[in-house]
Amino acid sequence: MRFSTAIASTAALAAGANAMFNGSMVYETKVLTEYTTFCPFATEVVHGDMTYTVTEATTLTITNCPCTVTYPVSTSVVSECSTW
């Protein structure tokens, strides 16, 4: 399974994810075969025991997997009023 942070909200809806509830925030955990994220500036990305150094804005793809990623899932309440 590939994962891109650009589609995190879509991936959060995917079947087979494990959801955890922590206070008012819901988290999902996925085991991935590849992890892609966009770094808008120089930074270091630490995943597991590996540190990836990014020297400029780039799309970083981690292929040294499996990668276990836990991230918050955005939720919202939608109400529809049919009359005013």
From TrEMBL:
The lineage of its organism: Eukaryota, Fungi, Dikarya, Ascomycota, Pezizomycotina. Transmembrane segments: none annotated. InterPro entries: Sed1/Spi1. One of its GO terms (molecular function) is structural constituent of cell wall. PANTHER family: CELL WALL PROTEIN SED1. This is Uncharacterized protein. Keywords: Signal. One of its GO terms (biological process) is fungal-type cell wall organization. The keyword Signal applies. Coiled coil: none annotated.
